[in-house]
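re: ur msg from earlier - yeah i can do the pyridoxal-5'-phosphate complex, just paste it... oh wait u already did. ok heres what im feeding in:
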Amino acid sequence: MTSDLARWRAETPGCAERIHLNNAGASLMPRPVLDAITAHLDQEARLGGYEAADAAAAQIAATYQAVAELIKATPRNIALVENATVGFAQALSAFDFRPGDVIVTSRADYVSNQLMFLSLGARQGVVVRRAADLPEGGVDPDSVRTMVNDRRPRLVALTWVPTGSGLVQDVAAVGAICEAAGVPYLIDACQALGQLPIDVAALHCDYLSTTARKFLRGPRGIGFLYVSDRALARGDHPLLVDMRGADWTGPDLLQLVDGARRFENWEKACALVLGLGAAARYSLQVGAVGFERAGTLAAGLRRRLAAVPGVRTMDWGRQRCAIVTVATDGIEPAELKLRLRARGVNTSSTAHEDAVIDLDAKGIKSVLRFSPHYYNTEEELDNAVTALQEELHR
Ligand SMILES: Cc1ncc(COP(=O)(O)O)c(C=O)c1O
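and the outut:
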C-alpha cells in the first residue's frame, strides 16, 4: 500500500468497518470533515447558533474560497444550497419560461431534472427536447447543435455523469455550441464533483449544480451552485429571492445582492458549510491523483465483473468514470445490494423509475451500482466481486 493510500484510509474511519463502494450515493467522510462539523455543533451548543456562526465567519468565508478553487471560479460565483436538486431548481427558476419555450436536454439526464422539465411543461407549456445519443452512448453534440440552430432553445441543460451509469457526457463540447449560439447552459455536475477535474471556463456554462456528499466526500444536506459572471451580469436571479439574496430597500423595492449569493437562502446549517469547506480542501490536497485512481480502480472492477457468470456490465459511452453498473441474472439488484450490505459491502441499485430512458434502451429493469473511490484498495474490489459471485451462485 502506498503511503498516500495508507493515510487516506487512516483518515477515513469508515474504512475500518466496511468495503464502501457507494461513493456515488454518499461517500465516507474523512476525519477533517467530520471534525469540522462536530466542532461547530459543539460551539452552537455552547455559544448559541447565531453567535457560533459569527465566531466562524472567517471559516465560512474560507468554504466559498475552497469550493471556488475546486472548480476554478471565484467566491462571488458560489451559492451554497441544500443539495444539487435545489441548486438546479434555483437556476431553472431564473428563466421566465413562456408557452412553447424549448429546453434541450439529454437522454441521460437525472430523474429529478427530467421531472422538473416535465413539471415546467405542465405548468408553463415548456417543450422538452432530448438530443440524440452517439452510437456508443452519451449525448451527440451535433444533435444538440442542430436543435440549438433549429429550435433556439431558452436553455440547454445537461447531466455530466448520470446517476445510474458510468457514462461521462461531453459537456465541454456542448458548452462551446451553446456559447457560440448565445444560449444559456446549465450543467448538473453532481456526480462529477470530486471524481473529475472541473474548470468552469472550459465548460462554457452559465450554471453548474453540485452536492457535497458524493465523490467530494462532504456531508449530506449541502451543495453549491456555480453562477457565472455572464449570468450575474444578465441580472439572473431565482424566481423567489429571500433576504439573503436581496435587500428590501423600500416598501415596494428590492435590490439584488451582487454575487451568486442571490441564489441562496438565509438560513444555513453552518456545521455543514464548514464540513463542505473541509471536504473541498481535502479534495484539493489529494489532487489529480485521486481522480486518476478512482477511474483506474473502476476500470479494473469493470473488467473483473465482466468475467463473472450471470453478470453483464452496462456502462456505455466513449469516456467512463468511477461508476460501474451491472445487470444480474437470477437475483434483482435491489436484493443483491441488501445481501452485499449484510456482508459488509456497500453498493447501490438503480431502479427503472430512476433512469427510464437509459434502462429501456439497455433492455433491463435495474442495475447494481459499484462506485469505488481513491481510498479503496484492489483487495476490497476482489472481496466485493467474490461476495457478489457467491451470492449469485450459492
Ligand atoms: C446526476 C445526479 N444529479 C443530481 C442528483 C441529486 O442530488 P441531490 O440529492 O444532492 O439533490 C443526483 C443524486 O444522486 C445525481 O446522481
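cool cool. The first helix runs from residue 3 to 10. ping me if u need the other ligands too
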